[in-house]
Give the backbone structure.
Amino acid sequence: MCFKSSNFAADFDIVTKIMKKIIVLIVALMPFIGIYAAKAERQTVVLSCDLHCQGCCDKIMKNIAFEKGVKDIICDLKSKTVTVTFDAAKTDLETLLKAFERIKKPATVLDSGEQKTDKQQTKQP
C-alpha cells in the first residue's frame, strides 16, 4: 500500500482502523450465514420403535441425541414412534438406524421410508 504521508505511525493507524471495521463486519454477519445454511439441510424422519416404558424413551433421548447431526428428537410412547430431525450434511438415515440398533432398540422407517425436508414440511396443500 502506498500512502502520501511519510509518517509511518499515521499510516499504521489508518490501516488498523480499516481492519477493525472489516473484522467487526465479518463477525456480525457470521451467525446469519450459519443459520441460513443449517436450516436448508435439515431433514425429519418418523421411526417406529418398540417402546415399552418411559425408560425406553429416556434411553433413546440420552443416546441418539449425541449422534452427529441430530438436532431434535421427539419420543411418543403412546404411538411407539420417534421423530428425529437431523442435518443431512452430517448424518443420514442409515447411520441413525445403526445408532438405534447399538442401543438395542431397532427402528423401522414409517411412511415408506420417505424423508421430509424443512421446506416440504412448511408447504400446505
Observations:
- The longest strand covers residues 42-49.
- The chain has four helices and five strands.
